[in-house]
Structure formats: C-alpha cells, structure tokens
Amino acid sequence: MSEPIPVEVGLVYEGERVRKQDMQVELGGPSVTEKFEIVRVRKTDEITDGAIEIIGPDITQMTEGNVHPLGILVELAGERVEPDLEGVVERRIHEYCNYIEGFMHLNQRYDIWIRLSKKSYKKGLTSLKIIGHVMHELFKNELPIIEKVQITFITDPLEIKPLYAEALKTYEARDARARGLSDDDVSEFYGCALCQSFAPTHVCVITPQRYANCGAISWFDGRAAAGIDPKGPIYAIAKGECLDKEKGEYSGVNESARQRSMGEVKRVYLYSAFGYPHTSCGCFEGIAFYIPEVDGFGIVLRSFRDLTVNGLAFSTMADSTAGGRQIDGFHGISIEYMRSKKFIDADGGYHRVVWMPHETKDRLKPFIAPDVFPAIATELDVKNIEDLHAFLAGHNHPVTERWRATDAAAGVEAAQQVQVFSGGDIPLTVAGFRIILKNAKITAEKVIIQPIRPHVKPGGEHHDAKKQ
Ligand code: SF4
Fold this sequence. Notes:
The protein has helices at residues 86-97, 118-123, 128-142, 157-177, 219-228, 251-260, 314-321, 335-338, 358-363, 385-394, 399-416; strands spanning 23-28, 36-41, 52-55, 67-68, 71-77, 103-106, 113-117, 148-154, 188-192, 204-206, 234-238, 242-244, 249-250, 286-291, 296-301, 330-333, 353-355, 418-422, 426-430, 433-437, 441-444, 455-456, 462-463. It is an alpha+beta fold. The chain folds into four domains: 11-179, Bifunctional carbon monoxide dehydrogenase/acetyl-coa synthase(codh/acs), Chain M, domain 3; 181-284 and 322-346, Ribonuclease HI, Chain A (3-Layer(aba) Sandwich); 294-312 and 348-416, Bifunctional carbon monoxide dehydrogenase/acetyl-coa synthase(codh/acs), Chain M, domain 5 (3-Layer(aba) Sandwich), CATH 3.40.1470; 418-468, no CATH class. Strand 22 (455-456) and strand 23 (462-463) form a beta hairpin. The termini are far apart. The relative contact order is 0.09. Residues 91, 192, 194-195, 204, 212-214, 216-217, 281, 283 line the site of iron/sulfur cluster.
C-alpha cells in the first residue's frame, strides 16, 4: 500500500465477522433506511485520481457502539471503462472492504451493513479515508483498465437523502436493461464466485432471466466483467445442452457448478426451488420459502422486520437458506429475478405464491399475473397458517386446485403425511458420534406439539417437566 495502513489487508480477512459487542461503530444496516453504495463512470477530466472525501462526521466523531448512516460513491474513469462495468465494479466494494482486518461489509446497493471492530479502531483504523485508500489501491491494482478512482463517503443524513434517491434510479435503469432478453436468446451465461469467502460451495449462475441473488449483477454486467477479466471471479459459462427446458437445467451450468463448488453441487435447476435448486450464499435480497401446509410459497425480503406467516422472521429463515447449500423449498432470490417470467417457473411461478408482505406485493404488481394477484395474502390479511388456508380457499387461489388434485391422487395416505421439516444439514449426536443428515426432509403421519410446562408442586415450587 502506498499510504500507511494501521491494520492488515488481505484475503485472509474475507468472511471475518464483527459481532455487536465487539463493534466500534455500525454503518448502515437494518435500522438505517437510507444508505447506499454506488459506482459511476465519469469522463477523465471530471474526477481526480486518489481524491477521498468525507461529507459528514468521520469515525472518530461517531459515538462508540452507535449506528450511523452511510453512502459510498465511487467514481471511475479510463479509456476502456464503460458504464456497463458500473454494477460489476460496485460489487467489488464488498470484496475489497472485507479484505480489511476488522471491517465487515455485508450486502450491497441500498442494503449495505458495515461494522468496524474496536480492535481495529484501537490499532488506528480511525478514519474512512483509510478505507478509501485501500479501496483506491485495490481497484487500480486488480482492474488495471481503471485509470482514475475518486471516492466519497457521505455520513451526513441530509446529504445522503438526495444521493440515495438518485442511486435507486440508477439501479432501476440498470436492472430494466436486461428485461427484454430471454435465456433462449443467448449462448452464454455467467457465473460469479465472489461470495465463496462466506459460502465456499456457492456459485451464482447469472442469466438474462435469472438475475444474481444479491440483485447487483445482471447478465450484461456479467458479460462486461468476464470480458475485462476472464480469469476473475465472474466468468463465462457455455450453456451446453438444454437437459430440461422447464426446470432450466443445462449441461454447461452443471459442469461449471461442479467445478466451482469443488464437486459439492452437481446439478442446478435455474427455475425451481425443488430438486436441485440454485444455491444461496447469504447476500440474497429475499427468500422464497415453501409452506407445506398449503403447498405454496411465501416470499419475504430482507427489509421486512416482522414475523412472516409461518411464524419465522427473515433472519431465521436466512440461516436455513444460506451457506451455499441446495435446500428444497428455501430459495435465496433477488428482486429482479422476481420480475422475471422464469421466476420459480417450474414450480408454478406466481400461481404458487400464497403470501408476501403488502409492500413487496405492491412493488411487484406489474409482474404478477392479474388473475392471481388478489388471491395472494399479505400480513394485512392473515396472521398465521390457519388464516392463510382460509384466505386461499376463500379467494380460490390456484394452489387450492393442487390440494384437490393431491387428495384425489394420493388419497388418505398422502393426506396423513405431513412434511414437518425441510432443511439443510441436521446434526444429531448419539453415543459419541455426530450424524449429519444432509439436505434432510422429515415427514410424519402425525405431529403433536406439546409445551413443556413447569410442574408445580403443592406449595408452589417449580420443576422443569423434563426432570420428572
Ligand atoms: S450473490 Fe452471487 S452474484 Fe452477487 S456477489 Fe455473491 S456470488 Fe456474486
């Protein structure tokens, strides 16, 4: 590094977590509404290489343990630097920030969540300018076509507001670009392995109709990235033979996933959440989660803070979804993929979606078939699965046909089988051995849920029921 950096910088720190009790400050994150990171391409004479500016308080002026808003604007220039590269270079902010010891960067775009550890702060990482110097150097070293990089950190909430609104418009314009293209129109898809530091077996397959899970990289972005750095973390995938058009299975994708996941992922269905679903790292914008009681999908975005209809919060289901595993019915997705005609198409698409927060439903209205739109429940309509069942029956949701078909085909036996758990790896410990059920699905003829009540002895003394 040309500037003195008080902490270590390297690949070894990727994947490092900073827990709440160890943080000096938090920047962005779930409790901050307006935050962003964005890369814009400028003309060479519009920016100054190496200029790093902070608008608002720097780290030393922030209260220890508090949460602060943040916007990061990275401006680039270079003869061969095209606006097509903005999305791809922007995703590198995540990677490069995570190289810095004690500096944790999660998510992307309008969802950034950063923590600085007390340990690194005490070592001297006390200014955003130092973060800017590291980013500047890594951008120029790793992507030599970039000739100039200027970085601005904005921590003043009043200054963030207009830039945040502008950033949202830019993201939308980028996303809209790939909407006219179908997967059949192209001979190549793109893969991204940037999140393998967090989920070693995860690879994103980016197609025109299946946007990256993080919502930050389109097929066009993938093409631009693979063009400038073919050996980099974003690479071309030859589609190969189409093995299953409905599910979206391609021989080239299978081969690429097998190689990049070190043999862990052998097949990928691009348009299904069952069988061989696309893996999920941890950066997904939302989750499509299967609700076995109604044979439909719920959808929840990271921004939804309440419990979903199955009684679980986004964060709880994110744990079951993430980690680069293929988990039936728990599917990491981007908002742009939800706008695609191929969105869980093999499973029924929106005709299989039964619940989503009303804000998400309104946002996606133009992309949801009008015949099913009123039959999708939100948190304003139902509070639990029982309510949901009644709502779907009352609105004649298409999944109710599946209920009838299942009853008719499988009769009493199927009706008695209840899927009680579908998850990733379930560890069991028995007599000195640890047994892991990989991608387990558990069914039972009957589920009995009983609270463990404390036993009250005469005289009022309480005992744990297990100890009886
Ligand atoms: S979520 Fe996928 S596309 Fe986005 S950075 Fe991670 S691996 Fe790449």
